[in-house]
Design the sequence.
């Protein structure tokens, strides 16, 4: 086993994933709907993976993790080791740091599992294609399948029971790529209230809107991809907002309800609407958390960021651009990389 350092960037879904297939092995973690995202330059996870003569150790942001967070990491490494090797996996030290708030709805699981996947594939010498890496990352977290790639990315739902046709692919927008910005508006501090796996299952089993949500997703994906090809921000923005609000309607219509929004979330949505009326186009999207991300042209990002910063209750604002694919490199054993 080699010592490696991987970096993966977070992504934000423009057409959302919410819900898992139940006709298949749950360990494959197959989504009920496809999704489409933008990888972000400003939010990333760095993961060092090294063999150890001691026992497994997972350090996140300098703190040793135990419990379910660590269990997910070891299950993922066991799965990847079994792809290329027999016998017991070597004991590992995983040292990870997120360059943004963990579990605050800023999709740290996406970059976290993408970084862990490319790190393990390299450290265990698995010789995987990016498509294979994407399938493997998906088993850790659905959104992580998308963070293997940079720019705009589509995750195919697939139909097969073995999940082989469920992987992400970059969407080419030509040269130079279509430059869009995403203004990340943090509206609260701390971790999200309901984890995505639990929330998705609750929506599937209790929300009356879950069926229509799943049924209408393929059209949203097709329309969004066509809008990206045409570089039509108004058309893309309309689908982005529709997908977001449809997902949150489904969350809110679950029993008990899942409400990720905080008062500043709604205030930011209103502010972005006012700006649009005033001729500054931006389009909101919100994940399983209270933060708002605003899709816009890069030359509008500063004005939108400023306006959102002035909304009472907003904690921080950050302007992101499209980010790169996940990368990995070998480091000297025990080294700092
Ligand atoms: O893959 P997970 O468990 O991080 O779930 C992602 C769910 C959403 O962020 C709400 C939507 C998405 O497509 O990223």
Sequence:
């Amino acid at each position: 086993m080699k010592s490696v350092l991987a970096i993966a960037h977070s992504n934000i879904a423009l057409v959302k994933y919410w819900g898992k297939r139940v006709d298949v092995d749950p360990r494959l973690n197959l989504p009920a709907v496809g999704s489409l995202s933008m990888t972000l330059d400003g939010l990333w996870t760095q993961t060092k993976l090294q063999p150890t003569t001691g026992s497994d150790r997972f350090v996140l942001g300098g703190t040793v993790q135990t419990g379910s967070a660590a269990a997910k990491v070891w299950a993922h490494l066991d799965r990847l080791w079994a792809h290329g090797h027999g016998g017991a996996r070597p004991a590992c030290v995983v040292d990870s740091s997120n360059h943004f708030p963990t579990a605050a709805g800023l999709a740290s699981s996406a970059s976290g599992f993408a970084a862990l996947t490319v790190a393990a594939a390299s450290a265990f010498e698995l010789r995987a294609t990016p498509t294979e890496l994407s399938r493997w990352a998906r088993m850790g977290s659905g959104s992580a399948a998308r963070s293997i790639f940079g720019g705009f990315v589509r995750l195919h739902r697939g139909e097969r029971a073995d999940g082989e046709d469920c992987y992400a692919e970059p969407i080419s927008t030509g040269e130079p790529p279509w430059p869009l910005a995403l203004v990340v508006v943090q509206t609260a501090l701390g971790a999200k209230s309901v984890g995505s796996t639990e929330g998705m299952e609750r929506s599937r089993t209790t929300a009356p809107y879950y069926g229509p949500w799943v049924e209408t997703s393929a059209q949203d994906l097709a329309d969004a991809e066509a809008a990206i090809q045409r570089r039509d921000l108004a058309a893309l923005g309309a689908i982005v907002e529709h997908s977001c609000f449809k997902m949150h309607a489904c969350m809110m219509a679950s029993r008990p309800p899942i409400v990720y929004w905080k008062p500043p979330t709604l205030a930011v949505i209103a502010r972005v609407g006012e700006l649009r009326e005033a001729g500054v186009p931006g389009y909101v999207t919100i994940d399983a958390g209270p933060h708002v991300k605003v899709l816009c042209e890069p030359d509008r990002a500063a004005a939108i960021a400023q306006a959102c910063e002035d909304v009472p209750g907003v904690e921080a604002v950050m302007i992101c651009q499209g980010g790169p694919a996940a990368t990995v490199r070998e480091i000297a054993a025990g080294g700092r990389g």
Observations:
- The radius of gyration is 19 Å.
